[in-house]
Amino acid sequence: MRKIPATMVTQHPDHASTPYWHAEAFISVKEETEECYRSFAELGAGEYKWDWEGKLVDEAVVERLFSGYYDYFSRHPLGKEKFLTFRLPNPKVETEFRLGRAFMGIISASGLANQVNLPLPPLFEVILPMTQSAKEMIAVQAAFRELTSLQHPLLKLSEEGIRHIELIPLFEDVDTIVNSDKILETYLNLHEAMFAFKPRYLRPYVARSDPALNAGIVPTVLAIKIALSHYRQFAERHQIALYPIIGCAALPFRGGLTPSNVPQFAQEYAGIRTTTIQSAFRYDYDKTQVIKGIRQLEELLPKGKPPAVLAKEEKMLRVAMREFAQYYKNTIEQIAPIVNEVASHLPRRRERVLHVGLFGYSRGVGKVKLPRAIGFTAALYSLGVPPELIGTGRGLQKVKSLKSKVKSEKSPIELLEKYYLNLKSDLQRAGRYVNKNVLAKLAKKSAAWQEVEQDIKEIEKYLGEELKPKTAEEKEHHNMVGRIYNCLQADLSAKKFITQAAVLRRSLG
């Protein structure tokens, strides 16, 4: 069996500070090859996601890696010890020609490795974003198989070239995550029918940011816990190895993974085999901390076993998830205009294509469009209203009063805490960035912000403490939020203060 890395570096543009190896915070496409090499050689990460989804991309990445760092990759070969994994553009959303370009990059990398006497194939696995069905997964693999069957003398592959691509499905909304084992079930059957063999293993990938953006933090965490329990049963039933991946970032709303809380994270998401290591993790913390954190993840994640969620408990959790999500969505739909306005002031960190027209897509809740998860999270933190809190207070109040329809030894709140281990600590951490002064001003203009004030009051009752900044940095962040709000009111650019606040909390969004 192949080596399964515990850490997957990504190009998510959520860092606030300047990378340790760079002169500025912005990272261009041409600099991402160097970032990839440094992630392997200096930070010790095992995998790097080369992202084709919604961003510009250097299509000659393997040639650049082999030509620039041949000695390193001869000792730590791609595809054997270190792994480069393309996240494909989804054909449902982005134009098909980009998918073809990604495929040709994988095929040409195989030929190049053969030419320079390195193990092949160096690339053999891809991530399909927004996966919602097994047919989508099979269609991508079938298209790749057809492309590699070309027989023209100028395009014909060598006998050693790659013929089949392994597929990692990325599940990005709460409902799909909860039911993703059913998609995998269908996929196994279709795969055997199409290719006459079953995969040796699967790496189901659960998103952490986009489901939180669409449904809130509590439903997202609970959905992942249910999925992990299902995966455990699936692996036992089919006698196939499952190595789940999670897409986590630094702030609690998007996963809460930092170099300083790895043991806590590993306990929360026991059963996850690989986690993403996004830009804020790598560049907003001291490099020695980062290296230590990656080593801890590589050591701890392989040991984790997911708890089994009993059927009667899952039923109750699903009821709670709907309650939390409803409160969250109702508020987000109403505050979307100011979220989008603040997001327009954010500093750029990567070269993304526009999320409009031919080249793009946007995220949304209900009838409104929103920024991507990083911009959304950054905008709300910049207003002193961490999104972790929205809908959560009212959800907790509602769940307390729920009459369980199934017999359980635990109350609904106890059941919630049983599976969301870090619920209190996540709320406490986010609550330190609340600015009640700004929120009170917002609440005078909209009932939606009054609902957020209610959320905070209910969370404070639940925690038994006031949500407020405690450290000097958190108090400075509080002041910075006031300046951001004043700039917005005066129709001035708030980018400078937004950036300074992000540096203080060690993540843009």
TrEMBL record:
Q: What is its EC number?
A: 4.1.1.31
Q: What class of enzyme is it?
A: lyase
- InterPro entries for the chain: PEP_COase_arc-type, Pyrv/PenolPyrv_kinase-like_dom
Which UniProt keywords are given for this protein, alphabetically ordered? Answer: Carbon dioxide fixation, Lyase, Magnesium, Pyruvate
One GO molecular-function entry: phosphoenolpyruvate carboxylase activity
What NCBIfam families does the entry give?
PEPCase_arch (TIGR02751)
- UniProt-listed HAMAP family: PEPcase_type2
Q: What is this protein called?
A: Phosphoenolpyruvate carboxylase
What organism is listed for this UniProt entry?
Answer: Candidatus Roizmanbacteria bacterium RIFCSPHIGHO2_12_FULL_41_11
List the top taxonomic levels of the source: Bacteria, Candidatus Roizmaniibacteriota
